[in-house]
Automatic annotation (TrEMBL):
Pfam families: HpcH_HpaI. The gene is mcl2. Its cofactor is Mg(2+). Residues 7-209 form the HpcH/HpaI aldolase/citrate lyase domain. The keyword Magnesium applies. This is (3S)-malyl-CoA thioesterase. Keywords: Magnesium, Metal-binding. Transmembrane segments: none annotated.
């Protein structure tokens, strides 16, 4: 069975009904209806009702809700609404330790936001908690907490980004890269997507409809890439059928890890093609 792709995960403010409706049509692999940072305190209750209404109808992709954080006046109402409305998962901001996650006893997958130094240091334990589906980097808050300066290659954050990927992959969970703030800079967004994929992220959280297609392309598989994976697998199977202990493809040695990677590529390619036909 093909793996679920998480190439693009679109944040949508919960207090913007028109934006929520439009999000259904944008082709994101998942949508996060946001009740936290994107919603002003005076609009929290209205946003919660908007999200409740949006969850009553069918979506073409998984829908997560980013609830307000622990200790805020809205946390319990946000979680109760989301769970009763049938959300596909909850996004919890500023997760800093595994104990907090364990004590929630949720009935849906939890996506933990890693956006503080403590969260980065405890990411392995957080990712290992049963019920945690993935880790999302919150780079804006993390950069502020670390007192870093902006850098086009995110140099001050590279250690933290890699630490989140390492923690998620070690636990078999999904790592999602942080948002790119400047929606007027598509070239910069494309560079950051390429960097995120190089670091090992499965996809990118995005904040603008115009970023969805670029993220899908950056974290997806082209037809040419799928064909290359098929050819490598064919060379592997041919060598095995001939009783050879070693397989080569394009002059390079093929080992089991290359075979596994090729199969993952085809799984992702097939999953994204299936989604595009729905």
């Amino acid at each position: 069975m093909s793996a679920k792709p998480w190439r693009s995960v679109l944040y949508v403010p919960g207090d913007k009904p028109r934006a929520v409706d439009k999000a259904r049509t944008l082709g994101a692999d998942a949508v996060i209806l946001d009740l936290e940072d994107a919603v002003a305190p005076e609009h929290k209750d209205a946003a919660r009702e908007n999200v409740r209404a949006a969850l009553q109808s069918r979506w073409p992709c998984p829908v997560l809700v980013r609830v307000n954080g622990l200790g805020t006046p809205w946390e319990h109402a946000d979680r109760e609404m989301s769970l009763l409305a049938g959300v596909d998962g909850l996004v919890l901001p500023k997760v800093e330790d595994a104990r907090t996650v364990r004590e929630l006893h949720l009935r849906v997958p939890l996506w933990a936001m890693i956006e503080t130094p403590s969260g980065v240091l405890h990411a392995p334990e957080i990712a290992a908690v049963p019920g945690v589906a993935g880790l999302l980097v919150g780079a804006n808050d993390l950069a502020r907490a670390l007192r870093t300066r902006p850098h086009p290659e995110r140099l001050p954050l590279l250690h933290a980004l890699s630490a989140v990927v390492l923690a998620a992959r070690a636990a078999g969970k999904v790592p999602l890269d942080a948002v790119f703030n400047d929606v007027r800079d598509p070239e910069g967004f494309a560079r950051e997507c390429a960097q995120g994929r190089t670091l090992g992220f499965a996809g990118k959280t995005v904040i603008h409809p115009g970023q969805v297609e670029a993220a899908n392309a950056a974290f997806g598989v082209t037809d040419a890439g799928a064909q290359e994976a098929r050819a490598l697998l064919a060379a592997w199977e041919e060598a095995r059928a001939e009783g050879k202990s070693v397989a080569t493809y394009r002059g390079a040695l093929v080992e089991q890890m290359h075979v596994d990677e090729a199969r993952e590529v085809l799984d992702l390619w097939e999953a994204t093609r299936q989604d595009s036909t729905l």
